[in-house]
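Usage example:
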Amino acid sequence: MSLSAQTRPPAGAAAPPLIEARGLTRILPGLVPVTLVRDIDLTIGAGEFVAITGPSGSGKSSLLYLLGLLDAPTRGEVLINGHPTHLHSETRRARERLSTLGFVFQFHFLLPEFSVAENVMIPMRKLKRLGTRDMRARAVRMLGELGLEEHVDKLPIQLSGGQRQRVAVARALANDPPAILADEPTGSLDSKSSEQVFQILRKLVDDHGKTVIAVTHDLEMAARMDRRLHLVDGMLADP
Amino acid sequence: MPLILSIALTHVGGRFRQSIVSVLGVMLGVGFSIAMAALMEGSQRDFVATLVDAIPHVEVSDDRRDPAPPPAAARFDAVNVIGARPDDDTRGLRNPVRIKAMLENWLPGGMAASLSGQAVLRYGGKDVAVALTGVDPAAHLRVSTIGEDMRAGAFMDLAADLNGLIIGDGVADKIGANVGDTLAVSTSSGAVRRLKVIGLFHTGVTQADDATGYTVLKTAQVLFSRPNAINRLSIRLKDVNSARAVAQRVERMTGYRATSWQEANESLMEVLMVRNIIMYTVVGAILLVAGFGIFTIVSTIVHEKARDIAILKSLGFDQADIRRIFLMEGLFIGIVGSVLGSVLGYGLSVFLGSLAFEVKTNVELTSLPIYYSAWHYAIACGFALFSAGIAGYLPARRAAQLNPVDIIRGAS
Ligand SMILES: Nc1ncnc2c1ncn2[C@@H]1O[C@H](COP(=O)(O)OP(=O)(O)OP(=O)(O)O)[C@@H](O)[C@H]1O
Ligand SMILES: [Mg+2]
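Running the assembly step on the lines above writes:
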């Protein structure tokens, strides 16, 4: 806890929390409406390493999609850096995902036609903050830090599952977003690769001050994170 | 290369064979459209050129579009003449010298006065009715290409022979006369004169070849019993397309009816227009079919790439970006198809133009008339791109609306 406490803004500072949920509820409309999450209130600051746990079907992924602005709540709202997002246009929310939020899913979802480095460069090319050469340099450097220096010009299909997942992490970090949202990032990996990915996330929090929110089934792994949110039937519960 | 374009290209590349088929569809559509347009317009222009060549571009006749009001009514508002009878004896263009002088200094082309009327040629017991025109041969040659259509004799021979007659070869065939024969020419005025055939022409237009004849103006005036009269002023313009405007101006200045060649051939022009409408409908249909091919392939790609769409959205692409990707795929196929189609169309046009035919019709064709126009290419490509755009847009819109959450859940 001490680590995240250090990177959090000092108490009383005006800086708003990075991600905030207020009364967040998502109900799928239909003949029988399905409630995915209900009345979630939470505040996540900079530099936190948060685990979302809970039984299967409890709404972990749903919550993550809502916090990541990939899905829109039925009621309640998500604030990013203190700004309510429910009134944002679709384009503005996409922009927020591009620069503020990085996603890592259980499956890597790399674009198969693009090389590893090109995949990492996609969010950079979309944001256009860097020149092409700088983008490539940054992608190669990040891949190097994740132990993938020999693979930068390979196609995703030539990589192992764990390697691909690390590429996905690099891609999520491409635009240096303050927050990484990961949905069971190690769910499809063996224990060695899992540990590798976990260490990367740990390092992001500790060394780079990133906020990482990771859904996990692995309670032992969750225990090694700084904060745990436990979901039961779409609602926050005590673990 | 822009990111969105490079993504679009990988998608098309990933469906290479299908894309090629779509490109071929557009290419054939564009190519055949262009070749067809070149042929259609070529034949139309050829036809019109033959026609226009053979007739005056503007013809001033001795009618008025609106009967002139009685002089008193024209001068005073209060005067209204009822039941006036115009005098009916003085047909013909009055004061031709003045009219000529009025037109001479601005008219972009030449003019020639003539007197035309119906006459009957009789030879060896056979009668043929012809439109007989009395001309000043030198002036007439400036407004007509008849000089080039002479099969026997020369048009200028008329100048030296008051009793000379030049007729179409069709007339000669019908009546059984030949150069050197003397025919009896009579008109409704009762005058009869014996004229010698000194020349034959063949314009290729049956109407002209089978029923017209020329003599000198003087002789015609005698035959029609109208000394010094002319009833027609033929104008040949440097720019045939200015005929309508010139006709209007002449009419305003002289008060006589001036008919442009377009007006004289209104129904023909309508037929040509209908032909063009049909052509462009067919072209549109061809390219629409090509559009279906594009629609199919882009739809397939959208379906196949749903996961990529979801991930791109999660990375921060908005709906417009996604739409652009797939729209671009449709347009890309359309553009490649259009470029190749233009080349094909040009090649086909050249090929068709090189074919020689032996056709005997009203107006002879020896080879297919091909008209090259950038418009054909622009219209065919424009239409192809338009239908490619629509064909790409529909699936693109669907792709943009895909919900990434559904796809990511489905894939996990
Ligand atoms: N499109 C849908 N239609 C119907 N029910 C749905 C739909 N999407 C999700 N659900 C249901 O909503 C609930 C929450 O789903 P969610 O994926 O958020 O759970 P989860 O905690 O991530 O589960 P897991 O650990 O298995 O990934 C589940 O019971 C799921 O079956
Ligand atoms: Mg889940």
